[in-house]
């Protein structure tokens, strides 16, 4: 009876019986959950379902006889909406849930789902699971999480495992990293790498770089060094090549090399360095002691596990911090090694930001090439520099330092710091050392705006690390440029004309951008001339510049480049608005909007008027039921939100709302001024054009309003050709008095434009507009939105789609200790603050057919988006030759290959397959893939030349400008003389709002370093790309992309839609493979 062992099969049968018994007890009204502890679940071959598992030895015992066994600590049984509900959980000793622990529990849930299906158990397995960990304040802390991202990734994971397990262990492909040291098989891999592949010991070698070296057969540092000396291959980018060569040289010469003296890793105005060493519990990884030392104070050690330990440390640390703030200088934290979230949190609670601390290990890696193989440790640095006390040797080159005392760690930290300061020189000043411990909206947004400014500056300054060729390849520079001469423009301003001396590549720069003109070869790009890009003719390669600082001293014998300008004019305006609205001393009325306290119902008379107008003049709009309810919202609430999924007519609806608001005000004989704002001029212009178009086309007589654009406006795009008497036009105006004298006004302007219009730099934000209406409100951040909202009298309307392109944010602020989600869009924030009565989501797409609409509707819109009847069954109409047979063996092999290729393209273009996913075999591609470019260009060529599809009906989209440039060149070559007009070829950001009959979207990337990047792995960007199509959607992607497994939980959630899209195409027979031999 004492610990008698029982077989797994016996425990499995007992677990199933117990589970059935507990499920019978789970009835409606069950107050407390029922629990099954330590249940054993075993699956056999005939208990697995779904073709996604059938080819995997990891899940198929016919190919691998290992059993699939799961023993979750707990199963919670409750009664859900559809009956008994099972939720899997585990108990862990770590202080917080770990990513790998969630994978484990998700696998248990997968086994339980298969068991419930195969055993016909009358229950449902929940899409959530839970982990129990030790709590800080309570005995147990409960963490629930969504298992659907894990479930979506399991098929790819099993296929990857099957591929690995199909080869002998000695042939396994791996990369040694620091976390490998805890693995039971580390010694085998480590010994093998030392003997056969010492290139793995090259510091900071990425997965993508290692793959490229292996692909070249370079397994040793000696072989790699010789290859780089003699080869010029393009497999590595110039920056990659430079960094790898530098590291190899450090080993070959056994010398430390300084890469760059200037640094922005730490500020130059430091009064004292505070050295910090943290010791963590080896099991829970919870910080248990903190040791600190300064250059003039002895080390101090605080035990965080003692009662009041952290509070004592906090008081002493804050005291030391404030003592060292003097005469424009302040303290700075120095530590060795990347901190965990918990370690960062210890100091964030005290108000210490990232700019107040430096990881000296990261700094050394960034500025020095060291002959230090494997991981960089105190032991390695003490050997290289002869520092004392020297720590004990590590077990391997990838093991961390062991048995090093806090006192010795602090001593080595100080010596490393002094050594680094002897070679490095900071380029920036810290502006504030305030410790903001209160996370109010004011402090959160102020910190966010300042941090974004700092990161933006860092991003631009970092470009100096790349040569001109690579800056051009990244589309962040134009050059080399040759000065041609000057001329006067129509306004009498000097234009400086330049011409590219090499083939033109696309850049991110647009006419009107503020830039820097720098001499080629100069290091400090920001020391160049301040200019404005006035004209840019990409066909001739000529461009014209305006000077922002007097005459330019340029020379025809010198080459120049156009660079990004790090100057910042917008941050002071944003800070001004944030201070005004969120000030705790004198809160602005808008403060109530962003705290969820804005109450403002319109009178019932207004609502009745709107409904009556819809039956009369508004009947011309032919709005559907949901659109009519959306139009009524601003007549019912003074703050409302309209979500507009792809193709639902959001801009069309907004045009009618503006017309109705003006009509209503005129009937009530009261003036009405409306500000229409957005992040971009383009979005504002589209709204103004739509209003004018509706008034003119529907001949709305007696419309009293003026439609005015403040700022940029292209008169050539006006709608004068569609005018009728007495129709209206969009007016371009820069006379503030003239605009504001209009009693009925629809004025378009960005927030920055309004700030200049009202000269708010002098401190005044006049409340001039009865309504402030935001289009594309899902793309604008709260500080940016304030610059428009602050001029409103109290009525606001926001339109956008939080499932499409989000705001542009450089940093990651999700881990910060703040209740304010600063990186959320203004629309996203307000949707969370206000109830369903103040918002509506449009639900009918007038663009996509049923098949194209199905996946985005299910994935992002709760299955609530449906195609309009007029386009639900639409199909692409093509004029083409139908091939049904493959030539026999007697036919010429090349002809047979060509015929097979045509059959593949015919299947891709089949109108009865409105959605197609084409899998391509390539790897190592980052921003350009010749394979995908060829496939996309060949499809487009056949659509245009063979099927006679107009170029205007086609769009080719990829995430990177480099890929679009490659596609453009290849398609131009294929079309030859027919190349009179190319289809739309652009990035996702540039096509939002556009639509085409056929959309071809390519992922491009297959490089291990980039397939899971935040940029590429973006569900919102994918949503925008695939919802541009009316009749046919073709997606091209590499197997490497769809089989990649994210390394973080955040990336896994973002990647879920791509895994589910693959499964959707597979189950719907939309999945096609493009043979490698066809390009």
Output the keywords.
1079 residues; alpha/beta; DNA polymerase, domain 1; Nucleotidyltransferase, domain 5; 6 domains; eight-stranded parallel β-sheet; 39 strands
Describe this structure in words.
With 1079 residues, the protein is α/β, with parallel strands linked by helices. It folds into 6 domains: 8-44 and 66-166, no CATH class; 185-253, DNA polymerase, domain 1; 262-428, Nucleotidyltransferase, domain 5 (2-Layer Sandwich); 467-568, Elongation Factor Tu (Ef-tu), domain 3, CATH 2.40.30; 571-714 and 728-802, P-loop containing nucleotide triphosphate hydrolases (Rossmann fold, 3-Layer(aba) Sandwich); 893-1073, Rossmann fold (3-Layer(aba) Sandwich). It is 36% helix and 20% strand. It has 33 helices and 39 strands. Strands 27-26-28-25-29-30-24-31 form an 8-stranded parallel beta sheet, sandwiched between helices. Strands 1, 4, 5, 6, 7 and 8 form a 6-stranded mixed beta sheet that branches. The chain has a 6-stranded antiparallel barrel with strand order 18-19-22-21-20-23. The radius of gyration is 32 Å and the shape is globular.
Tally of separate helices = 33
CATH level 1 name of the largest domain: Alpha Beta
* Helical/strand content category: alpha/beta
Q: What percentage of amino acids are in beta strands? A: 15-25%
**Helical percent range?**
25-40%
Q: What's the mean pLDDT score?
A: 89
Unreliable stretches = 46-65, 717-721
Task: Note the topology.
Blueprint: H1 8-25, E1 34-37, E2 41-43, H2 51-54, E3 68-70, E4 74-80, E5 83-91, H3 99-118, E6 124-125, E7 128-134, E8 140-146, H4 148-165, H5 186-196, H6 207-215, H7 221-230, H8 238-253, E9 257-258, E10 262-263, E11 270-280, E12 287-294, E13 297-303, H9 309-323, E14 330-335, H10 341-348, E15 357-359, H11 360-367, E16 368-369, H12 378-385, H13 406-421, E17 425-426, H14 441-462, H15 468-473, E18 477-488, E19 494-500, E20 514-519, E21 529-537, E22 542-547, E23 559-564, H16 571-582, H17 590-593, H18 604-615, H19 625-632, E24 639-643, H20 650-667, E25 672-677, H21 681-697, E26 706-710, E27 730-733, H22 736-740, E28 744-748, H23 751-757, E29 769-774, H24 782-789, E30 792-800, H25 826-833, E31 839-841, E32 844-845, H26 850-860, E33 866-867, H27 893-909, E34 915-920, H28 930-946, E35 954-957, H29 961-975, E36 984-986, H30 988-991, E37 996-1002, H31 1019-1026, E38 1029-1038, H32 1039-1043, H33 1049-1067, E39 1071-1073
Helix pairs in contact: 3-4, 4-33, 7-8, 14-16, 16-24, 19-20, 20-21, 23-24, 28-29
